[in-house]
Amino acid sequence: MPLGKLDKVLKIAVEELITKGTAKGKEMVITGIKPAEGKKGPRYYIEGEGDKEFLKMNSNAYLGMPLRKEVIEAEEKASKEYGAGPGAVRFISGTYKPHIELEKKLAKFHNREAAMIFSSAYSTVMGILSPLITKETIVISDALNHNCIINAIRLSRPKVKEIYKHLDMADLEAKVKSNIGAGKRVIIVTDGIFSMRGDNAPLDKISNIAQKYDFEFEEGIITIVDDSHGIGAFGKTGRGTEEYTNAKGIDIIVATLGKALGINGGYVTTSSTIINYLRETAPFYIYSNPITPSEANAAMKSLEILNSERGLELLEYLRKLTKHFEKGLVDLGYEIIESDHPIVPLMVRDTQKTSDLVKYLTENGILATGLNYPVVPKGDEEIRFQISADHTEYDIDYVIGVLKEHKETH
Ligand SMILES: Cc1ncc(COP(=O)(O)O)c(C=O)c1O
After folding, report:
1. ω before 35 within 30° of 0 (cis)?
2. DSSP per-residue codes, 126-190
3. Superfamily of domain 4-57+310-409
4. Interval between CA 2 and ligand 1 midpoint (Å)
5. Ligand 1 atom having least distance to the Cα of 195
6. How far is the CA of 391 from the centre of ligand 1 (A)?
7. What is d(CA 326, CA 394) in angstroms, rounded to the nearest whole number?
8. 290 Cα to the center of ligand 1, angstroms
9. Which residues of 56-91 are buried (b: 16+ CB within 10 A; e: fewer)?
10. Is 195 among the catalytic positions?
11. What's the rounded Cα separation, in Å, for the pair 227 and 221?
């Protein structure tokens, strides 16, 4: 069938995104990595930029796991032992020893009964929300939740969908109260760390609200947290927002293996009953291949490092670098959103100025992410920096120096 007519419509759709300024555009291609050397952390080579070196200030790999020797070795060892891919979905013949071991270790790390892994955190959220949301379920979601939560709720079609104002506990409580009698089950769902701002959900308070009104609903109030940016980067031992807020009673935790743990994939951890139910009902799990056995083995190594003395040292170092960077920006007179998370948003509050500053940083070999409307609300345009444990103090000072230079010359 000739695609001419469809092509025309799709080209217009993409052009509209470009005109609106919301197109993602051409992807930058990393062609090589220069390992850390002396006082410098790793540098990246980019297609079309020759031998110019770039410092990545926009990686989610907060603990520098992707380049750690032990992690790479764990991946290599398992691919030699089990092959390069699973060759089937889990219930056919795609379940390998590293998958099972990783699930057990993730559950133990979070002090939960069981865990199950998916091919990404996105598919975890998509996969678990629809089996947990019935026609008698009320879903209450933070206004700034990640795209995967928004789409998972759309897919699930709950009886009632409520959006509470970002982090506004009075609004959340009001929405719980106003739905008493409207359905059997309530699901409160939130990001742990909100990736655009580095701020965190008050999980202690959310959990208290859930417990306070649980008796009002026949099947109770269930709390679900997607802490993809929090696990391995936040909380004293890297157990994320639950640990940081000292929350008791969060029912279900979702996270990624692809950010602080540095590999790829996602997981959910909770009670054995819920996991058994999800293994039977979550389509993104049942009908889609798992991560490779070698990815599972590498993630296990990352988790082992995180869960050791070395992990505590890395987290401490990450916090130290983050505070050093934040202070540098504040001293220069920049507005930031301060937090204990390695996401550092520099609030520019202007679209053109954001793009100009990102360009200036790139020219100076620094990769950082400019976030404009509609990714962030109008007026909240920002540059998002992400600190990683493979940065050095020299690297951070270099970025501060470039920003200083920009201030002085623009
Ligand atoms: C809250 C949240 N959930 C899910 C994801 C997606 O993670 P993954 O790449 O594992 O699908 C992200 C990453 O941007 C995220 O911030």
Report:
1. no
2. HHHHHHH--TTEEEEEETT--HHHHHHHHHH--SEEEEEPTT-HHHHHHHHHHTTTS-SEEEEEE
3. Aspartate Aminotransferase, domain 1 (3.90.1150.10)
4. 37
5. 16
6. 22
7. 15
8. 17
9. bbbbbbbbbbbbbeebeebbeebbeebeeebeeebe
10. yes
11. 19
Atom 2 of ligand 1: nearest residue by CA position? 228
Q: How far is the CA of 37 from the centre of ligand 1 (A)?
A: 31
Ligand 1 atom at minimal distance to the Cα of residue 226: 1
Residue type for position 249: G
Residue nearest to atom 12 of ligand 1 (CA): 228
Rounded-to-integer distance, Cα 351 and Cα 378, Å: 9
Ligand 1, residues at Cβ distance < 6 Å: 120-122, 146, 148, 191, 195, 226, 228-229, 256, 258, 266
Per-residue pLDDT at 95: 98
Give the percent of the chain with pLDDT over 70: 100
- Which of ligand 1's atoms lies nearest the C-alpha of 122? 11
* Annotated catalytic residue, options 195, 207, 294, 388: 195
Given a cut of 90, whether residue 33 has pLDDT beyond it is yes
- 391 flagged as catalytic: no
Amino acid (1-letter code) at residue 75: E
CATH number for domain 69-306, candidates 3.90.550.10, 3.30.450.40, 3.40.640.10, 3.90.226.10: 3.40.640.10
87 dihedral zone (left: phi>0; alpha: psi -120 to 50; beta): left
Question: Mean pLDDT throughout 310-327?
Answer: 98
Over range 380-387, report the average pLDDT.
96
**What are the DSSP E strand ranges found in 148-302?**
160-164, 185-191, 193-194, 199-200, 221-226, 252-256, 266-270
Q: Residues 174-186: pLDDT tens digits? A: 999 999 999 999 9
Please tell me which residue in 99, 110, 146, 259 is annotated as part of the active site.
Answer: 259
Q: Which of 229, 301, 341, 391 is catalytic?
A: 229
For residue 233, what pLDDT band results from cuts at 50, 70 and 90?
very high
Q: How far is the CA of 122 from the centre of ligand 1 (A)?
A: 6
Question: What are the residue boundaries of the structural domains of the chain, listed by start?
Answer: 4-57+310-409, 69-306
Distance from chain centroid for Cα 331: 29
Q: How confident is the model at residue 110 (pLDDT cuts 50, 70, 90)?
A: very high
